[in-house]
Amino acid sequence: MKSVQEPTSEKSIFQHLYGILSSKGFRQLVRYGLVGLGINAALYAFYLLLVFWGTEPKTSMSVVYVIGLGIGFYGHRKLTFFHTENFKHAIARYLISHLGGYGINFFLLLVLVDFMGLSHALVQAVSVFIVAAYLFIIFKYWVFAEKNYAAS
Hints:
The protein is mostly helical.
């Protein structure tokens, strides 16, 4: 007698992968990466130019960080997260989040360049990705979260 195989309810690896790649969170991550790549490429070039002109690396990072704040808020609010909730709450949370990002960036330059003697250009290039990962999580779940800010 032949055994009849019962259909399983388990998903294949391809179904799981498709579920991940088609999720809203993944699409936000891709848009965040594209918006961030454009902004950070331009800001990194400006950072290197400032240092080339004689500005100290942490001062140069501070200047480009402030410029990136405004460009990034608009880009991520409109293009990454399609956020339409309370503007005042979003901008306040955005600025608070960036204080943490700035602190991480400054700390990495201070320790790795000033104390350990590593190349400021390399440290800043790596810092962009570390801070970006931190900010994506904060933006997604706090700054541009899908909830009514009037209730908070």
